[in-house]
Design brief:
The complex is a heterodimer of chains A (310) and B (191).
Chain A (H helix, E strand, L loop, with lengths): L7 H4 L14 E5 L2 E5 L5 H6 L2 E7 L3 E8 L3 E7 L1 E6 L8 E2 L14 H7 L8 H8 L7 H12 L7 H7 L3 E2 L2 E5 L3 E4 L5 E5 L5 E7 L14 E3 L27 H8 L3 H7 L9 E3 L13 H4 L1 H4 L8
Chain B lengths: L22 E3 L3 E6 L6 H5 L2 E7 L3 E8 L4 E15 L5 E8 L3 E4 L4 E6 L4 E7 L6 E3 L6 H4 L2 H8 L3 H9 L6 E3 L3 H12 L1
Antiparallel strand pairs in B: 1-2, 2-3, 3-9, 4-8, 4-10, 4-11, 5-6, 5-7, 5-8, 5-9
C-alpha cells in the first residue's frame, strides 16, 4: 500500500504492537433499518485503509441506490433479498415478457416498432443503432420533438390502456441470501431490498486505500435518493446532513435534463424526506426478476441421495 | 525491442476535429475523448482527456466520474457549471469563461450548460480509461433502476417515475432552456 502512494503523514501511522477488538461506534437509523459504522479513524482501520459498515434492512425495507468512490465487498450475514447493480451504459436486459395489453388496438408506438423492432427487445440494441440509428439521435431537441409530435412517447398519451401495456425494463437484479459475497466497483450504484421474513444483515468493507479511490482516505457515499439527516460514515460526512445528489442542483436544471416539470424535479430532491437511506416499500415490490432456483436451494441439491446424481 | 515498441509509440492525437467526434449534434455540440484505447501511451501515464464544445443553449447531461478526478479548463466561450458533493451540497455554481479552471473530484455530480454563448473546454482525467455515469438520459443510472425503486425512493407515483426514467432519450447532450425561457419558468414557479 505504501508503494501505491500513501501520503507521508500516514506511513508511520501503523502501530501494531497492540490490537483491539473493534465494535461499531455509530448507528444511523432509517425508516426501515439501520446502518452501523466502525470508526474508520481508529488507528487499526486507518492503518489498513478500510472502512466497515453493517447494514440491517428490515422486512420490506429498501436500501436506496448509492455509490462509493472506493471498491466495496459485502457479505450477507443473515436473510434474503434482492440486489440491483447499475453498470453505466449497459442495456436494460430485464423486462416483462407478458403480452402487452392493448397491442391489438393500434397503439401509437406500434408503427415504430413495426418498422424498427422494439428498441428494448433482443440483444442488438447497439446493432440496431448501427444499422438504423435511433430516430432521436443526432437531431437534438427538434428531432425529438418531431418524433414525439408524430408518434408520441411509447408511455405517454395512451391513457389507461397504454399504461397497462408498457412494462418496466431495467438492468439485472439478483437474489442474495445468507452466505453470498458481492462486490461493487467504484462509481457503480447499487440498491438492496429485503424480500425475506427476517432482517437482512450485510457486513460491508470499503477499501478506501485502493488505488481506484483517487480522493482522500475518507469513505464517501453518494446517495441518489433519500436524505440522511443524521449524517454518517464518519470523516467529512460525520455530523452533516446527507442529501441526495439531486439536492445540489438547481431544480430547473434537473427539469431540463430529465424533461419533466419543475415541481417533479423538486420532489427528486427529497427535501422533506426524513426516512433516511433505508425506506419501507409500500405494497408489493414488483420488480422483474427471475424465480429463485428451488432445486439449488433444497437440501437434496446439497446432499444428493443417489450416487448417480451429478 | 524498445525501438519497435516504446520508441515508435504514437504520442499524440488530435481531438478538436469535428470529424473525429465521439458525440456529435450539429445544433448542440460535440464531445471527443482520448484514452488508452485510442492512444496507448496514456496507459503509461494513467491519464486521459476529453474535448467538448457546446453550442448556445445546450447542456451536458448531469453525470459523475466513476474512477477519476477531472480538471476542466475552459478554452473558449462561457458556460455555467454546477458541482454537487457527496453530501448533496452544491459546491460550485458559477459561470466559467476562457482561461478558468475547475476541479471536479471523483464521484461529484456536475452539469455544464451554455446559455446563448458557445462553451468550449478540455478536461484532463486522472485515469487512463476514465469512465462516467450519467444521471439522466437513455444510458443513465435512473434508466437502469426499476420503476419501483424510483417511485419508493422519491415518494412519487409510478406515472411520475415513468416520466423521470424515460422522458430524456439523449445520452450526452441535450437542449437547455434559453434565458427567456428560464425567466419564464422562474416566473411560473414564483407565481
Amino acid at each position: 500500500r505504501q508503494s501505491l502512494g500513501v501520503p507521508p503523514q500516514l506511513q508511520n501511522e501503523c502501530n501494531l504492537d497492540n490490537l483491539d477488538v473493534l465494535q461499531a461506534t455509530e448507528t444511523i437509523k432509517s425508516e426501515a433499518g439501520q446502518i452501523e459504522y466502525w470508526d474508520h479513524n481508529h488507528p487499526q482501520l486507518r492503518c489498513v485503509g478500510v472502512s466497515v459498515a453493517r447494514y440491517v434492512i428490515e422486512q420490506g425495507g429498501l436500501y436506496l441506490p448509492t455509490f462509493f468512490t472506493s471498491p466495496k465487498i459485502s457479505y450477507v450475514v443473515q436473510g434474503t433479498g434482492i440486489s440491483g447493480r447499475v453498470v453505466p451504459g449497459c442495456a436494460e436486459t430485464f423486462m416483462d415478457s407478458q403480452p402487452m395489453q392493448g397491442q391489438q388496438q393500434g397503439q401509437p408506438w406500434q408503427g415504430r416498432q413495426g418498422q424498427q423492432g422494439q428498441p428494448w427487445e433482443g440483444q442488438g440494441q447497439q446493432g440496431q443503432q448501427g444499422r438504423q440509428g435511433q430516430p432521436w439521435e443526432g437531431q437534438g431537441q427538434q428531432g425529438q420533438q418531431g418524433r414525439q409530435g408524430q408518434q408520441g412517447q411509447p408511455w405517454e398519451g395512451q391513457g389507461q390502456q397504454g399504461q397497462q401495456g408498457f412494462r418496466d425494463m431495467h438492468q439485472k437484479v439478483e437474489h442474495v441470501r445468507r452466505g453470498d459475497v458481492f462486490a461493487n466497483t467504484p462509481g457503480s450504484a447499487h440498491w438492496i431490498y429485503n424480500s425475506g421474513e427476517q432482517p437482512l444483515v450485510i457486513i460491508a468493507l470499503l477499501d478506501i486505500a485502493n488505488y481506484q479511490n483517487q480522493l482522500d482516505r475518507n469513505p464517501r457515499v453518494f446517495h441518489l435518493a433519500g436524505n440522511n439527516q443524521q449524517g454518517g460514515f464518519g470523516g467529512s460526512q460525520q455530523q452533516q446532513e446527507q442529501k441526495n445528489l439531486w439536492s445540489g442542483f438547481d431544480a430547473q436544471v434537473i427539469a431540463q435534463a430529465l424533461k419533466i416539470d419543475v415541481q417533479l424535479a423538486q420532489q427528486l430532491q427529497n427535501q422533506q424526506d426524513s426516512r433516511g437511506n433505508i425506506v419501507r416499500v409500500k405494497g408489493p415490490f414488483q420488480v422483474v426478476r427471475p424465480p429463485l432456483r428451488q432445486p439449488y436451494e433444497s437440501e437434496e441439491w446439497r446432499h444428493p441421495r443417489s450416487p448417480q446424481g451429478n | 525491442g524498445l525501438e519497435e515498441t516504446i520508441c515508435s509509440m504514437r504520442s499524440h492525437e488530435n481531438i478538436d476535429d469535428p470529424a473525429r467526434a465521439d458525440v456529435y449534434k450539429p445544433s448542440l455540440g460535440r464531445v471527443t475523448s482520448v484514452n488508452s484505447y485510442t492512444l496507448p501511451i496514456l496507459e503509461y501515464v494513467r491519464l486521459s482527456a476529453t474535448r467538448g464544445v457546446l453550442q448556445g443553449n445546450a447542456m451536458v447531461l448531469p453525470k459523475y466520474n466513476m474512477n477519476a478526478n477531472e480538471i476542466l479548463y475552459c478554452t473558449g466561450g462561457q458556460g455555467r457549471i454546477q458541482v454537487v458533493n457527496d453530501n448533496g451540497q452544491n459546491v460550485l455554481d458559477q459561470q466559467v469563461q476562457k482561461g478558468q479552471l475547475v476541479v471536479i473530484p471523483q464521484g461529484f455530480a456536475y452539469v455544464v450548460q451554455s446559455h446563448g454563448n458557445k462553451f468550449e473546454w478540455i478536461s484532463f482525467k486522472t485515469n487512463e480509461n476514465a469512465m462516467i455515469s450519467t444521471l439522466a438520459g437513455r444510458t443513465s443510472l435512473l434508466r437502469a433502476l426499476p420503476l419501483e425503486v424510483i417511485s419508493n425512493g422519491f415518494q412519487i407515483s409510478p406515472e411520475e417515475a415513468r416520466k423521470i426514467k424515460f422522458n430524456t432519450l439523449e445520452t450526452t447532450l441535450t437542449r437547455a432552456a434559453g434565458r427567456q425561457q428560464q425567466q419564464l419558468i422562474e416566473e411560473i414557479v414564483e407565481a
